[in-house]
């Protein structure tokens, strides 16, 4: 993977406002005076009072700019590590090798038809965990590097999807058909595939042909047409809804029309149509339903006839420029600060405190590898703290949204975004907005719905930052006179691995956060545009208006993660510490009274069914992974899960699209690890959720023993969202951030962050004449100056 960082500065960092120069000079004089007073009052243990710049320079302007490449190796290791994603050259080699295999009858995707054979998706095939551990923990040879390639085989009878393992890399010579034992379907029907560019091309032509018949209806109703609407403001555009039907194997997609303005998601016009595209004979595909003015028609001809007869006519005028503003990000409203001033910025005054070499990251006491997996994006492997592995894998599995409503759009929509390939939707991040400008930005390579590797520029970032709240602190004071006796605290500096995926309307920001006390935090944040429909009284029960003729409806966001926990090895146990109320009247110091108080019971879960947890607020509990080793106090060492974002799945089990996300029935589920049970979902779940290829429920149905076994936790986060007017133009991340944490639990003998250099202890000197400050050898010198933010190269394909 290649790495890009912020643009080099083109001008000086500070530009002073001359009109406020005298104010700034006065402020500087005051600051200098206060600083001299502090020098007299406060001394640091072993350090003089910190200077704002390096002792070798006299002013800020003499500092060198902070390096963009210190501690960073730009390319994958050669040869790649076992966790490295496929390189561009490997993808090309695999593609070219397969195209020469005459028995597969492959065509380049640009020349493919629905009834032909072509490459659909490609990614790394990870070796079995046991082989990886033997290699990275022992002295065994590195497992052979392989690719997993998904083929669309419309040429076969029945039409199907196939998965092939191609090896060895980087120069493949062999390929073998892969059949995952956990899959519930064999063969995998072609109808389970997402609509790709091969199919979309045919469907768009059907839409153009049928809408041309109804051009006078479109222009009479909306002021514009569709099939030849070029260069006209507010042209109609169509997008399809998933899943494509309510029965397994059905392929009947609803499309809804909107005006092609900026923020077009918020300009639905109330026209929805359905295409029937079952089978591989595209000449039999039709447009067989039209929903117009809240009325259902069974053909385009029936719709046109009704309109021509003056029945159900509707006019939705083209919004003017002012009316279109509500869907844009343009600033509007009262100016909160005049003149505008920059907000706080993040930079490393003495350089980076982490190292990156290819996919491997080292941050203080943390080590891990970053991997880009096509369907679900960025994940981390071999996560270690103080060189002890705490997790083999932490990965996002699925991001799903389930809608409710009346019209075809809102009542059909249920999205499973891993099928859309999150890695292919991870577009360029903006320095200073999406990530701090000092972050390291990485390119990735995607092979999905394309003939070759696609470079995703700056698609994820790594940065260290201050969370803005102490990791821990205490102000000790004398209760009698109120004077402080000491202060102890520590800044919560963390390392963040972030990627963002824009899956059509919604933007998701996914973070892996590493704290200095041995805690790993995973966070999913939702933003972007809500899915909107044209207002009607029936749908009003499901949402709120966000514009005069636009309604956004209720939906539930659900995220599933896989955490392969290894606490001091792979033989672990899972407990719930069940918190309950006890009533005691036998305490001698409470004679004559009853004391109601909390207590907890340790409950060892023996089997997978016992460990499939549906959270009940009346039965709170801790979720604890334990090893058979103990800390200094004889307590088993472990880690626990804390879930800060749960939502009940309100769709009943085994109804509608729910089987495709049966993992959402549980807030956390623990299973015995199996290499074949590598994911809770599949890239086929979106288009056949009724009879899914991967049914997570089967992972727990076999009810295997989980005592002293290699265990995996499947964690579900969720949030119900009833949109409101403030969701225009887009949903804010505030209030829409869901997290879970993996926390040490009796793993250490004390707080692991006590080893950090970021703590500070302040104690008063005798008579409170100054203070002694222990900052662990840190000084306040700035040895480099931050780079200037420049966004003019954003989106430049040549940069």
TrEMBL record:
<feature type="domain" description="Copper amine oxidase N2-terminal">
    <location>
        <begin position="92"/>
        <end position="173"/>
    </location>
</feature>
<dbReference type="InterPro" id="IPR036460">
    <property type="entry name" value="Cu_amine_oxidase_C_sf"/>
</dbReference>
<dbReference type="InterPro" id="IPR049948">
    <property type="entry name" value="Cu_Am_ox_TPQ-bd"/>
</dbReference>
<keyword id="KW-0560">Oxidoreductase</keyword>
<dbReference type="Pfam" id="PF01179">
    <property type="entry name" value="Cu_amine_oxid"/>
</dbReference>
<dbReference type="InterPro" id="IPR015800">
    <property type="entry name" value="Cu_amine_oxidase_N2"/>
</dbReference>
<feature type="domain" description="Copper amine oxidase catalytic">
    <location>
        <begin position="344"/>
        <end position="753"/>
    </location>
</feature>
<feature type="active site" description="Schiff-base intermediate with substrate; via topaquinone">
    <location>
        <position position="506"/>
    </location>
</feature>
<dbReference type="GO" id="GO:0009308">
    <property type="term" value="P:amine metabolic process"/>
</dbReference>
<dbReference type="InterPro" id="IPR000269">
    <property type="entry name" value="Cu_amine_oxidase"/>
</dbReference>
<keyword id="KW-0186">Copper</keyword>
<feature type="modified residue" description="2',4',5'-topaquinone">
    <location>
        <position position="506"/>
    </location>
</feature>
<feature type="domain" description="DUF1965">
    <location>
        <begin position="266"/>
        <end position="309"/>
    </location>
</feature>
<dbReference type="InterPro" id="IPR015328">
    <property type="entry name" value="DUF1965"/>
</dbReference>
<feature type="active site" description="Proton acceptor">
    <location>
        <position position="417"/>
    </location>
</feature>
<dbReference type="GO" id="GO:0008131">
    <property type="term" value="F:primary methylamine oxidase activity"/>
</dbReference>
<dbReference type="Pfam" id="PF02727">
    <property type="entry name" value="Cu_amine_oxidN2"/>
</dbReference>
<dbReference type="InterPro" id="IPR049947">
    <property type="entry name" value="Cu_Am_Ox_Cu-bd"/>
</dbReference>
<comment type="similarity">
    <text>Belongs to the copper/topaquinone oxidase family.</text>
</comment>
<dbReference type="GO" id="GO:0005886">
    <property type="term" value="C:plasma membrane"/>
</dbReference>
<dbReference type="InterPro" id="IPR016182">
    <property type="entry name" value="Cu_amine_oxidase_N-reg"/>
</dbReference>
<dbReference type="GO" id="GO:0048038">
    <property type="term" value="F:quinone binding"/>
</dbReference>
<feature type="transmembrane region" description="Helical">
    <location>
        <begin position="21"/>
        <end position="42"/>
    </location>
</feature>
<keyword id="KW-0472">Membrane</keyword>
<keyword id="KW-1133">Transmembrane helix</keyword>
<dbReference type="Pfam" id="PF09248">
    <property type="entry name" value="DUF1965"/>
</dbReference>
<keyword id="KW-0812">Transmembrane</keyword>
<keyword id="KW-0479">Metal-binding</keyword>
<keyword id="KW-0801">TPQ</keyword>
<protein>
    <recommendedName>
        <fullName>Amine oxidase</fullName>
        <ecNumber>1.4.3.-</ecNumber>
    </recommendedName>
</protein>
<dbReference type="InterPro" id="IPR015798">
    <property type="entry name" value="Cu_amine_oxidase_C"/>
</dbReference>
<dbReference type="GO" id="GO:0005507">
    <property type="term" value="F:copper ion binding"/>
</dbReference>
